[in-house]
Write a structure and sequence with these properties.
The chain contains 12 helices and 32 strands.
């Protein structure tokens, strides 16, 4: 994506723009409001509601003070994080309209809820009561799900003498992708499907088949058929156990079979299909079960890469075997290397010139040596040259730039004792970059940002993350993995509570050369970010000089993310070429808010989002 294209995209996707175009079906069935922009739904909806307010409420005088409710009225369509995310964007959309002054709180619900209790009369409450008396309009949202999309309505409600002013909009569609996609588990998906099947089954004769396919048409990974079949069996068994316990009616039974008996009645046969669509950091799983003259039962959701089983064996080269082709979804295999001079070899192919990553995560190694010799061999067993910068925290990581063809991964013994490990390999066309792997367990995606968490099983300490990968980086072939911004914090009451904030890896830049980082805001505004390489470590952080003369995190600069559309970095690559990186800031507010909630660090949200 070019810088011009990204800028154009950024202008369309402001901080208030949560939502992409609605699904095809929703577009065909929905009469769009004039002036509504499906690529900027909340921003354009705020503008349309403001126009109606001005038309229907001539008694209002500028500036108009508006308060925002805490979250949409209908909460079943989304999680608490998603609801917070939605209202954050609505507040930001109205705050960017000339003539509007926003009440000082994101959430006026708890404030107005205690207005009659006398608590606000306490001097410690500050000017909250006075601020409430200035509000002329309250903006509310309501939402409900329609298939894969959600429909929202925005309305205004008059306060303090303006009660007759209450215009609203017609419902408008919002893609789930930008509300904040939540990662679920395969157990949740199959339990919901099993409950639907059980409710639609009438007696004990309910045979069911299950097939698995890749949306792309590629071969299904070995073991997935049995994995999904086992999930469905367990889910059906759970429904059977619950019915026995409740004893509401006669027991039913749905039996998973390999193939239907041709003699069995057609109106009792269930046919199930699992469709897998690989994503950079997981899979979208769709489960649909159908029976004649019955409404289909279906569920779909995102699951992380680790939800699906790894390969237990890798196809061997030979006339009868198909050499696996690497793509951006990691191919994984659980294996063991015997002690001594043992070797394990795994063939693969790439279809076009690709960046190839091979790794054995140290956390997966069961044995005395976390570093396991691993490399890639080409034709005639020639060892390929790695192109990555050595990372001590990932000693088994190797990256290559390989032309189309067949290659072999070789894993060698690290000592005299056998070791278990998990081998991971993935590839991406050199026109693109490998996406960084998620730190910890993925929670949600908010536009271009993600929230994740990891937990120490011994201490229970949680570490939470908000991060994004670069949308653009140049020059071409400068690096094989996309740069990333990472914010990291520990759970409340752990350590000193410091926030770690990294925006780049300094090893890709020529030392002692100029480096500039700027945040671009709407209307062409530019905010310079105080960013510099750390004295120790590999990263560049936004810093300023503290009272003791030492560099500290520049919270004011980081707070500038809230109004920005992109963060752009310019410097000099190690070979002397001009280098640039562009990050999107769409979803920053929601991801940091989710990170803060997950680790009980509301102080971080207050400092980084609402300051």
């Amino acid at each position: 994506m070019t810088a011009r294209a990204l800028t154009k995209r950024a202008l369309c996707l402001t901080v208030a723009c949560l939502v992409a175009a609605p699904p095809m079906g929703a577009t065909a069935q929905t009469q769009m409001m004039a002036g509504f922009d499906p690529y900027n739904p909340f921003g354009s909806a705020a503008q349309l509601l403001w126009q109606r307010i001005q038309q229907q409420c001539p008694q209002l005088k500028l500036p108009v003070t508006i308060g925002i409710a805490s979250r949409p009225v209908t909460r079943e369509a989304f999680t608490t994080d998603q609801g917070n995310n939605i209202m954050q964007q609505i507040r930001a959309a109205f705050s960017n309209i000339p003539g509007i002054t926003m009440a000082p709180w994101l959430d006026i619900d708890p404030i107005k809820g205690i207005v009659d209790t006398g608590v606000l009369d306490n001097p410690l409450a500050g000017d909250n009561k006075e601020q409430l008396s200035k509000i002329q309009l309250e903006v509310r949202a309501s939402g409900y799900k329609v298939g894969a999309a959600t429909r929202f309505n925005l309305s205004a409600h008059g306060w303090n003498g303006y009660e007759s002013c209450s215009p609203s909009l017609d419902p408008f569609p919002v893609s789930q992708d930008f509300i904040g996609e939540e990662y679920s588990s395969t157990d949740e998906l199959f339990n919901k499907v099993a409950a639907g099947v059980w409710a639609a089954s009438v007696d004990t004769g309910n045979p069911m088949t299950l097939s698995v396919r890749m949306l792309s048409g590629l071969p299904v990974s070995p073991g997935w058929q049995e994995f999904f079949s086992d999930k469905l069996r367990r889910a059906l068994s759970k429904q059977n156990a619950e019915e026995k316990e409740t004893k509401i009616r006669a027991e039913r039974h749905v039996q998973l079979v390999i193939a239907h008996d041709p003699a069995s009645p057609e109106d009792k046969r269930w046919d199930g299909m699992v469709t897998v669509d690989p994503r950079p950091l997981g899979y979208r799983i769709s489960v649909s079960v159908n029976r004649r003259n019955t409404t289909p039962v279906s569920e779909d959701g995102l699951v992380t890469l680790d939800e699906l089983p790894t390969m237990q064996q890798w196809a061997a080269l030979g006339p009868e075997a198909q050499t696996p082709r690497l793509d951006q979804t990691p191919m994984r295999i659980n294996a063991r290397i015997e002690g001594g001079r043992a070797l394990q070899q795994y063939p693969f192919l790439v279809a076009q010139e690709s960046y190839v990553e091979v790794d054995i995560p140290t956390a997966s190694v069961r044995g005395p040596h976390p570093a396991v010799p691993v490399d890639v061999l080409g034709r005639n067993n020639a060892q390929m040259k790695t192109i990555h910068i050595v990372n001590p925290s990932r000693p088994n990581l190797r990256r290559y730039k390989l032309g189309p063809g067949e290659y072999t991964i070789r894993v060698a013994s690290a000592g005299p004792v056998a070791q278990d490990f998990q081998l991971r390999a993935r590839a991406v066309d050199t026109k693109d970059m490998l996406m960084p792997e998620a730190p910890g367990r993925l929670l949600r995606r908010f536009q271009d940002w993600y929230a994740s968490v990891s937990e120490d099983p011994r201490t229970g300490q949680r570490t939470c993350y908000a991060y994004t990968a670069a949308q653009e980086a140049g020059p071409r072939y400068w690096r094989e993995q996309a740069p990333f911004i990472l914010l990291q914090a520990s759970s409340a009451g752990v350590g000193n509570g410091d926030l770690q904030h990294l925006i780049e890896d300094k090893r890709y830049y020529k030392p002692n050369t100029p480096f500039e980082a700027v945040i671009r805001e709407g209307g062409g505004m530019v905010r310079r970010l105080n960013a510099a390489p750390t004295a120790a470590g590999n990263f560049i952080r936004p810093t300023k000089q503290g009272s003791n003369g030492q560099p500290i995190l520049d919270m004011d600069a980081v707070a500038g993310y809230n109004r920005g559309t992109t963060l752009e970095i310019q410097g000099t690559a190690t070979d002397g070429r001009p280098a640039h990186v562009i990050y999107s800031l769409q979803g920053y507010r929601a991801a940091v808010n989710a990170m803060s909630l997950e680790c009980g660090r509301r102080d971080l949200a207050n400092a980084l989002v609402w300051k």
